């Protein structure tokens, strides 16, 4: 495990596709869930996250049990994406500690920092960030090949089975430009889950979708999320998403946790 800490507040571009070895592809790294062959071992997520970005300070405590789905609500600028980026390893903590399934991912006091590509964390961003030049099958297989070192044939077969599970198996040969928003979001979710991360982060996964697709994907997620025994954090502006998808809600304002809306 690397303990080198990146420069605090290093600029990252959330609009670019995840590079090989980045957290936009779910990472099941050495010591991650790939070792156990499945979700759900360990103690869930336990984190105190303190991150400064310019004048903004995020300071929150988050605990999510295995199999629990927690919605993170808050107005624009509240710190929701900053929270997810810190958990994914895209922003280092300034103070606090992140422990996932018993493994310390970030603790500045102990100078410990697991880089994003080594974190067993799956991330789905609002605009999918699929690799545009890869077919759906290879988008999903990418993490298996790069992180788990699986061979081409086996990783493709496994990718196809995840696409089928998510109802888009017949689209395996398509590139992202030939997928609808809902289809692309399913592929992105398959890609995030294929390496069996121990934490799933969904950043506004429905916000780029039109109303009917949004309802379709929300219903789909409602079926899938309870089947994962990993902790899930889902950032959303929409209380309906929280109501339908989450067991519990965290509300942020100005970088701090507040009582959730009733
Ligand atoms: N690179 C940066 N440098 C300085 N400040 C930043 C940077 N990125 C974000 N911020 C600030 O951090 C605060 C929290 O931003 P963040 O993106 O986490 O909010 P959010 O709740 O996800 O908002 P939205 O719902 O609009 O995505 C904002 O005040 C924002 O201006």
TrEMBL record:
SUPFAM superfamilies: P-loop containing nucleoside triphosphate hydrolases
SMART domains, per the entry: AAA
Compositional bias per record (Low complexity), positions renumbered to this chain: 21-30
Domain ABC transporter as annotated: residue spans: 42-262
UniProt key word Transmembrane: no
InterPro entries associated with the record: AAA+_ATPase (IPR003593), ABC_SmlMolc_Importer (IPR050093), ABC_transporter-like_ATP-bd (IPR003439), ABC_transporter-like_CS (IPR017871), P-loop_NTPase (IPR027417)
Listed Pfam families: ABC_tran (PF00005)
Keywords: ATP-binding, Nucleotide-binding, Transport
Coiled coil location: none
Region ranges (Disordered): 1-39
Alphabetized GO MF terms: ATP binding
Superkingdom as given in the UniProt entry: Bacteria
PANTHER family assigned to the protein according to its UniProt record, in alphabetical order: SPERMIDINE/PUTRESCINE IMPORT ATP-BINDING PROTEIN POTA, SPERMIDINE_PUTRESCINE IMPORT ATP-BINDING PROTEIN POTA
Name the UniProt record assigns to this protein: ABC transporter ATP-binding protein
